Amino acid sequence: MDTKRFNPGPSSMIVTRVADGQWHVLEDDLVVGRGHSMRRPDGRLFISIDAWRRAAFDRLAEAMLADLPAPLYTVVDEADTELTADWQRAGFIVRRREWEFVIPTDPLITGLAAARPPSGVRIVPGGEADQDLLRALDRAIREEVEAGAGWQSMPAEIRPRPRGVTIAGPAQYAVAAASDRYLGLLRLVTATRRPRIGLIAVLAGEHRRGIARALLSHVLGTLHLSGTAAASAEADESNKAALALLEGIGGRRTGSNLELAR
After folding, report:
1. In which domain, by residue range, is 93 found?
2. Overall pTM surpassing 0.90 (yes/no)
3. What was the pLDDT predicted at 48?
């Protein structure tokens, strides 16, 4: 346990590293803030602070930045201007913005009622995909990301994972299949308040064939038939194609998250 004492005024604050990746700040023996660090699968180190007073935030930030190697990253709700200002005061700058969407499932609203996969392509429902072909598609998509935009603007679902771990929950994936291989996938996360489209990806050579729309038509249509009125999704501000796709099917922006870096 590593303890550091700071003197912000009439009382003292003690910052303690209570475990690997966990810090507490105490004032008069009471915990008034907590800090956490986590290295994501892509190798980047993300930190978070939950503090009840600005002074406690500042003491935790000072201690954590001294303990941890740069670069460091954090994510905040853009609507939380006070927290964003706290991180900027600690030297963080806005690196990227991710928009949150609510998407209707009713095909009469999305306009996807007539969306069908192109000739020679079929949609395999979630939980029915061949795992070997799914892993092969996942590897191919990852290689395309590495050769192109890179991992920094990708959602968490597609970021690098430990060796041998490439698919998170195979039952969550619907795929677009040709006769001998898979061409695209959609990952739907249901263990949330509202079903979330965590990832839509189509091989680069198969773009502009309507495969992404066909995947959305199938998944959203299935949700609609089950009585689910809406799903959620996120898209990076720089991903114009994803933004156009989500807005084109009636997706409504409901908020945004900022990724900050130091």
Report:
1. 2-98
2. no
3. 97
Token pair recorded at residue 130: 């061949």
Alpha carbons 185 and 173: distance in angstroms, whole number:
6
Statement to judge: residues 238 and 126 lie in one domain: yes
Per-residue pLDDT at 142 exceeds 70: yes
- Residue 25 and residue 154 share a domain: no
**194 lies in a domain?**
yes
Q: Whole-angstrom Cα distance, residue 64 to residue 58? A: 10
209 and 107 part of one domain: yes
